[in-house]
Amino acid sequence: QVDLVESGGGLVQAGGSLKLSCGASGQFFSRYAMAWLRQAPGKEREFVAGVSYSGRATFYSDSVKGRFSISRDNGKNMVYLQMGNLSLEDTAIYYCAANRVGIVEQNGESYHYWGQGTQVTVVG
């Protein structure tokens, strides 16, 4: 079992930026693939970004490619999502998730551990 806690969400103007953080418990963090997924009202949960266990490979959905950047610090058990040029369509609850196999997948069912989520609201 691993606990994931997201932080950094809030209210931001369209065109602005925001950085989300996810802290993980446990000694096996460096073995997990990590991902950010989001869910907006009336929409299905969607994959946003993922990073391999080593940090050497990253993946992004087409809607955020070029605007968002995922990174990890295995020494601190932390994962980050830097978001830029935000639009109203980015408003959602953002979740941090872990895959203990170590492989990034876009299917949310592939992730074994989930955080509580953090709300991002874009206005303008």
List the helices and strands and how they pair.
Elements: E1 4-7, E2 10-13, E3 18-24, E4 33-39, E5 46-51, E6 58-60, E7 68-73, E8 78-83, E9 92-99, E10 113-114, E11 118-123
Parallel strand pairs: 2-11
Antiparallel strand pairs: 1-3, 3-8, 4-5, 4-9, 5-6, 7-8, 9-10, 9-11
Task: Characterize this entry briefly.
It contains no helices and eleven strands. The protein has 124 residues and is mainly β. β5 and β6 (58-60) form a beta hairpin.
Description:
This protein is mainly β and 124 residues long. The chain is 0% helix and 48% strand. It contains no helices and 11 strands. The strands form 2 sheets. Strands 2, 4, 5, 6, 9, 10 and 11 form a 7-stranded mixed sheet that branches.
What brief labels describe this structure?
124 residues, mainly beta, 7-stranded mixed sheet, 4-stranded antiparallel sheet, globular
Q: Compute the gyration radius: what is it?
A: 13 Å
Helix-and-strand structural type = mainly beta
N-to-C SSE string, H for helix and E for strand: EEEEEEEEEEE
Mean pLDDT, as a whole number? 96
Task: Count helical runs.
Answer: 0
Coarse shape: globular
Segments where pLDDT lies below 50 for 5+ residues?
A: none
The strand count comes to 11
Major sheet characteristics: 7 strands, mixed
How large is the share of residues in beta strands?
over 45%
Q: What is the first-to-last residue Cα distance? A: 40 Å
